[in-house]
Amino acid sequence: MRKHVGIVGTGIYLPKKIMTAKEIADATNGVWTEEAVKSKLGINQKCVPGESLEDGTQEMGAAAALDCLRNTGVDPMDIDVILCMGEEWKEYPLTTSGIYIQEKIGARNAWAIDIQQRCCTCVAGMKIAKDMLMADDEVDTIMVVGGYRNGDFIDYTDKDMSMMYNLGAGAGAIILKKNYGKNELLGSHIMSDGSLARDAGVEIGGIVNPMTVDNINEAYKSLRLLDAKHMKDALNVISMPNWMNCIDKSLEKSGLTRKDVGYLAVLHFKYSQHIGMLNNLGLTEDQSIYLSDYGHIGQVDQILSLHLALQEGKVKEGTIVSMIAAGIGYAWAANVIRWGAVQE
């Protein structure tokens, strides 16, 4: 059998607490209606963290990792590397989430590192994992895992932030293995545009604008569009073309074309964009899952979509899966998976 990298399986953790479309609308002080939140933003409800520490970023990541181990039967002692895609907003700043997760799941033979490309990190992490597995004879099994709760920073009274009212909470994990024999990760393509690097982010709490006694309450709701006009004007022009370029390039690297795609594992964004992307690829709504009951859980979306699709039978033997991501900064990414037996 030729050398390849396959996906062993996935794991998910979702907080029990939810925020409904009505609650989101109410939080905007009536600027958005419940119906508009549902129809335009595409949110029926979303997962949000509860008060318990089990919904911390690192703890959720560990829970998803344990779920992945249960679902796959992989021995944690067989994991060689943990690539943690968990967000920087976590229980303790400057702690390494991957190493914490390593300890929580008993992966004592692994080494761990945190990687970050915002909501593109899952797809980027899977590419990094494949490249490591193909290049390093000492690495056979890698887990990509992480938690997300950046929605904590959303100010629902900030009209410019409506594109991020969908931010939720949760965690995902995916295990990749060298020469697994099935579910092959094929081509990937990633783009980034540094002209948008500081157009969005948490405004207060860093070196430029330190947290003070006077601004501490504002700081915790300061995820903002720092240059809203520049970012929105740019994304309106380049975002969809960049996504389609990533899709086409990843398919080309896989020896495939758009007509081969059977399932789109895509991030949650507004419904019109979701339908537009499906139309561009010639896919039906049944060939994707719109995450309107979960919200946008950052870099977890792609794992969640695949996880749900496997449960619902939308991905089966022979299905070509295209994973799509984008992250503020700005980055776009896509990969291709052939589900089922590896073709020689």
TrEMBL record:
<dbReference type="InterPro" id="IPR016039">
    <property type="entry name" value="Thiolase-like"/>
</dbReference>
<feature type="domain" description="Beta-ketoacyl-[acyl-carrier-protein] synthase III N-terminal">
    <location>
        <begin position="113"/>
        <end position="194"/>
    </location>
</feature>
<protein>
    <submittedName>
        <fullName>3-oxoacyl-[acyl-carrier-protein] synthase 3</fullName>
        <ecNumber>2.3.1.180</ecNumber>
    </submittedName>
</protein>
<dbReference type="GO" id="GO:0006633">
    <property type="term" value="P:fatty acid biosynthetic process"/>
</dbReference>
<dbReference type="GO" id="GO:0033818">
    <property type="term" value="F:beta-ketoacyl-acyl-carrier-protein synthase III activity"/>
</dbReference>
<dbReference type="GO" id="GO:0004315">
    <property type="term" value="F:3-oxoacyl-[acyl-carrier-protein] synthase activity"/>
</dbReference>
<dbReference type="Pfam" id="PF08545">
    <property type="entry name" value="ACP_syn_III"/>
</dbReference>
<dbReference type="InterPro" id="IPR013747">
    <property type="entry name" value="ACP_syn_III_C"/>
</dbReference>
<keyword id="KW-0012">Acyltransferase</keyword>
<dbReference type="GO" id="GO:0044550">
    <property type="term" value="P:secondary metabolite biosynthetic process"/>
</dbReference>
<dbReference type="Pfam" id="PF08541">
    <property type="entry name" value="ACP_syn_III_C"/>
</dbReference>
<dbReference type="InterPro" id="IPR013751">
    <property type="entry name" value="ACP_syn_III_N"/>
</dbReference>
<keyword id="KW-0808">Transferase</keyword>
<feature type="domain" description="Beta-ketoacyl-[acyl-carrier-protein] synthase III C-terminal">
    <location>
        <begin position="251"/>
        <end position="339"/>
    </location>
</feature>
